[in-house]
Amino acid sequence: MPGPGKKPAALKVIAGTQRKDREPDGAVELPTITEVPPPPDWLPNGHAIKEWQRLAPILVANKLLTEGGLSALGQLCALHGKVVQLYAAGEAPVASMVGQLRNLINDFGLTPVAQGKVKPIGEGPAKNAFSNNGGRKRAS
C-alpha cells in the first residue's frame, strides 16, 4: 500500500516547510496582483461583494493575491455572503459550509494561526536570530 502523496509546493510555502534544495525544477510562480481588482459579476449578494471589497485590498497590500487566487477569493466571498444571509434569516449554516469557509479563510492567511504560516510572495527566508551569534562578533 503506498504512503501518503507528496504535499503540493504551495502548501509547503504556506506551512513554512519549503526548502530550496527540494524544489522541483520549473516550479510555477504566479504573478501577484498589484491593484485591487473589482469584485466579479457572479458574486451572489451584497454581503459577498462587501467581503471582496474588504479582503482584496488587504491581500493585495500584503502580496498574497495572485492571478490564480482570484477564483478562490471569489469562492470565499460567495460562501461568506451565503453564510451571512443564513444567519440574517435566523438560520444556521450547515457544518460543511462553515468548515469550507474556514478552510478558504486559512488558505489566505486570514486567521491568527494561519498568519504565521502564510508568507508574502517574493519574501526571502526568515533570518535566524541564533545564527552567527545574533549578529554580534565572537570574542577571540
Helix content, binned percent: 40-55%
How large is the share of residues in beta strands? Answer: under 5%
Cα-to-Cα separation, first versus last residue: 56 Å
Shape: globular
Radius of gyration: 19 Å
Which residues sit in consecutive blocks of at least 5 with pLDDT less than 50?
none
SS content category: mainly alpha
Kindly state the number of beta strands. 0
Let me know the largest β-sheet: none
Question: Layout of SSEs?
Answer:
Elements: H1 9-15, H2 46-61, H3 70-88, H4 95-107, H5 112-115
Helix pairs in contact: 2-3, 3-4
Descriptive tags:
140 residues, mainly alpha, 5 helices, 42% helix
Explain what this protein looks like in three dimensions.
- With 140 residues, this protein is mostly helical.
- The chain contains five helices and no strands.
- The longest helix is centred in the middle third of the chain and has 19 residues, at 70-88.
- The model has no long low-confidence stretch (mean pLDDT 82).
